[in-house]
Specification:
alpha/beta, 5-stranded parallel β-sheet, two-stranded antiparallel ribbon, 6 helices, 20% strand
Length: 170
């Protein structure tokens, strides 16, 4: 029997793991989670306060197939720009909040499709959770809690010795 000939055909792609069951939500016009198709999200690299540059980058991302965009909000100038950006963006805008709980309220008031917060880099966040949840609930604004090792509180690092999954959850 002759040896098989390699025709250079791609090997079969392994079946992806089953998706974790989750609840479907709306991020603006885009369904996320549940049985919704996987959506493409990216983040701008501009200073959000530079409205023209941020909207230009959002337009470029949209043209390349992006369906949801996240913009950083570390300053009051960035928070002030959110209303214009959210109104003029062709795709849903998620405000990525840094440092101040008041920026969460600004993003909700600006009409952002969702808000991402990292409690580790927002001082006084714990004191505002109830108010933030109420404001988001009243407007139907989804809130994503995102944590990372770089923003773990010193006390958690001391308690767990390093950034561990348990420290991130706590």
């Amino acid at each position: 029997m002759p040896e098989p000939v390699d025709l250079g055909l791609p090997v079969p792609v392994p079946r992806p793991a089953d998706r974790r069951v989750s609840r479907k939500i709306q991020v603006g016009s885009v369904a996320v989670g549940g049985d919704a198709p996987v959506s493409v999200q990216s983040m701008t690299t501009t200073r959000t306060s530079d409205i023209g540059a941020t909207l230009q980058q959002i337009a470029e991302l949209t043209a390349s197939g992006c369906q949801i965009v996240r913009v950083a909000c570390p300053t009051q100038d960035d928070a002030d720009a959110l209303a214009t950006i959210a109104k003029k963006s062709q795709i849903p805008v998620i405000a990525d909040i840094h440092f101040q709980p008041k920026y969460v309220f600004a993003a909700i008031d600006a009409g952002c499709a969702a808000v991402r917060v990292n409690p580790g880099n927002i001082k006084q966040f714990d004191d505002k959770v109830r108010e933030i949840a109420k404001a988001a609930g009243e407007t139907g604004t989804p809130i994503r809690i995102g944590v990372n090792a770089g923003s773990l509180d010193r006390r958690l690092l001391e308690k767990y010795g390093k950034a561990t999954p348990e420290a991130l959850v706590e």
